[in-house]
Amino acid sequence: MTDEKSVVADKDVQAEKFGLEVMVDEYACAVADQQAPPTGVEATRRFYKRYALRQEAMAGVGEEPACGKGCSYCCHTRVSAPAQEVFVLADAIGRLPPERAAEVRARVSANAARAEGMDAATHSRTPMPCAFLDEQGACSVYDDRPSNCRRYHSLSKADCEKSFSRPEDLTSRIRLNTSLLVANVSSYLGYRKVLVESAVDTSFFELNSALREALADPEACRERFDAGQPAFTDATVCVPNGTMI
Ligand code: SF4
Questions:
Q1: Which has the closest alpha carbon to 66: 151, 159, 143?
Q2: How many distinct structural domains can be found in the chain?
Q3: Which positions ≥6 away from 62 have C-beta within 8 Å?
Q4: What's the pTM?
Q5: Residue 23 included in any domain
Q6: What residue owns the CA closest to ligand 1's atom 5?
Q7: How many beta carbons lie within 10 A of that of residue 107, not counting itself?
Q8: Which of 55, 88, 100, 121 shows the smallest number of beta carbons within 10 Å?
Q9: Which InterPro entries is this protein grouped with (predicted)?
């Protein structure tokens, strides 16, 4: 018999099954990448490409996200990223026009210094424009943005505006496309599982503090990462090494 409860349960089972399929597929691709053997940076770039293809494949499934170029409410909050994603961003800064690159570097340092005295909750509730936002409110390193930025989306610009204008209000909620969320999280978990199983440092760092260090001493950070050690010595750790999130 089909009642409301069993329809909801069926949908949950379908979502779980779909998520598992995406995760297993991404896991297989990421394993192949690790066997290449790539640097953490190359594996991450390939993961970003696969991720973009999955996003394209999800177009039209569920409600369309309200996100668009120039809407940057979500780019004023605390972002965390693992070392190899920080290196991808550091390389992207190197490809920016020199004036823009110098500006971004200065803003990274200023944001890192400002966040230094804050705990995670205070930082999350303190609107701080990301160092990569340009004058039009667009991400100047969009193709290289961290996985946490990629996963984020919203079905309502009004929800985001409300959350942005009242950061202290912890009851604010952003509506999401559940199918897209399941696909995005599953894809990331497949990739993440391979990293956790390998010897690399998988800690997540506060983006500004990690980037400041990666820009100041790129060789030392990458050497430590390649040797399986913590890539950064001063950056703020948000999620410890080995955690599956
Ligand atoms: S890296 Fe780009 S997408 Fe992520 S918060 Fe900064 S401006 Fe926004």
A1: 159
A2: 1
A3: 177, 178, 179, 180
A4: 0.89
A5: yes
A6: 75
A7: 17
A8: 121
A9: Puta_zinc/iron-chelating_dom (IPR005358)
Residue 28 belongs to some domain of the structure: yes
In a domain, 4, yes or no: no
What is the rounded distance in angstroms from the CA atom of residue 144 to the CA atom of residue 81?
12
Residue nearest to atom 4 of ligand 1 (CA): 149
Q: Could you tell me the distance, in angstroms and rounded to a whole number, from the CA of residue 127 to the centre of ligand 1?
A: 13
Domain membership of residue 219 (yes or no) is yes
- Best residue among 48, 91, 128, 132 to mutate for probing ligand 1's pocket (most ligand atoms within 8 Å of CB) is 132
Residue numbers of the domain that contains 56 = 16-239
Q: Say whether 228 sits in a helix, a strand or coil.
A: coil
What is the C-alpha separation between 47 and 51, in angstroms, rounded?
6
Ligand 1 surroundings by CB, under 6 angstroms: 75, 79, 130, 132-133, 139, 145, 149
Per-residue confidence in pLDDT tens, the chain, 245 aa: 456 556 556 767 777 888 888 888 888 888 887 776 567 888 899 899 989 988 888 899 899 999 999 999 999 999 999 999 999 999 999 999 999 999 999 999 999 999 998 999 999 889 999 999 999 999 999 999 999 999 999 999 999 999 999 988 878 889 999 889 888 888 888 888 888 888 789 999 999 999 999 999 999 999 999 898 999 999 999 998 877 76
